[in-house]
Amino acid sequence: MLGFLPAPLIAFIFLPLLVANTLLFSVLILLVMPLRFLMPTHRLRTAIAALLIAFAETWCRINNQVLFRLLPRIEWDISLPEGLSKRHWYFVISNHQSWIDIFALFYVFTDRIPFLKYFLKQELLYAPFWGQAMYALDYPFMKRYSKETLQRHPELKGKDIETTRRSCEKFRHTPVSVMNFLEGTRFTTVKHDRQQSPYRYLLKPKAGGMALALSALGDQMSCLLDVTIHYPDGKPTFMDFCCGRLRRVVVRVHKREIPHEAFTCDYENDAEFRESFQTWTAALWTRKDAELARLQEKEGE
């Protein structure tokens, strides 16, 4: 709709609207959140939690169906498996290249599966309004300790694991989609070279976080949704998106079976299971790397 305008002017109009939509629903969530602690019964507390999710889903719908349509037309090439349902539990993984990945995943999955709950770095909890709204929505906030920190403070060992367990146990009673970027950070050539990653288009996956989350969530997980995101015109920045320069997005989603052992075995203390789970994760990443290679080759034809 705004495609006739210069890119900076598109951003000047679009970005404040996106911020206003985010701020509006963050405030609504924060205003309603205290009711969860005041309700006398579990049923009423669950109803308030559902209302908070409804606010978040409405935020997504306004983004997807109103605000994004103000931008020059984005061509979405999306492939989804059959049988997705909001009544099931899903563990969702994806490659990670840009902040736009988050908007893309919300675009693809809103109203198709339960609202996505991302693993977030604890530092994001302090983002004004937005961070507290994510906390109210029971997003799992993770705090990772470096090897140096653990050497200085050995009492912190295992704290991040316990945080993961507590966060995921909240999801046992209501269908949820737990989202994890297994690479732990956005892909860059510098990070790829520093890791000496064996994959062409991916960083090394971190299997431990997924294994801990699956053991805490239990076997009510319907399946793994393995997402591959590809930007045919190159990796976009957030400002590329706001300026209307993002024109094409390719998303491929595959259902994968989760090994039953992931729900029962101890990743930290069972060396045999840890090795087998890492092998399974590496196989997922090898397939994803090959899919990205095919998508890249298709664009070069």
From the coordinates shown, what is the CATH architecture? Answer: 3-Layer(aba) Sandwich
Beta strand %: 5-15%
Query: Low-confidence runs (pLDDT<50, min 5 residues)?
Result: none
N-to-C CA distance: 31 Å
Number of helices: 11
Describe the structure.
The protein is an alpha/beta fold. The chain has a single domain (74-300), classed as 3-Layer(aba) Sandwich (Glycerol-3-phosphate (1)-acyltransferase). The chain contains 11 helices and 8 strands. β4 (120-121), α5 (130-136) and β5 form a beta-alpha-beta unit. α1 packs antiparallel against α3 (42-67) and α1 packs across α5 (130-136). 30% of the residues are buried. The model has no long low-confidence stretch (mean pLDDT 88).
Per-chain topology:
Elements: H1 7-32, H2 35-38, H3 42-67, E1 75-79, E2 89-94, H4 100-109, E3 116-118, E4 120-121, H5 130-136, E5 141-142, H6 147-152, H7 159-169, E6 177-181, H8 189-195, H9 207-217, E7 221-230, H10 238-242, E8 248-256, H11 271-300
Parallel strand pairs: 1-8, 2-6, 2-7, 3-6, 4-5
Antiparallel strand pairs: 7-8
Helix pairs in contact: 1-3, 1-5, 7-9
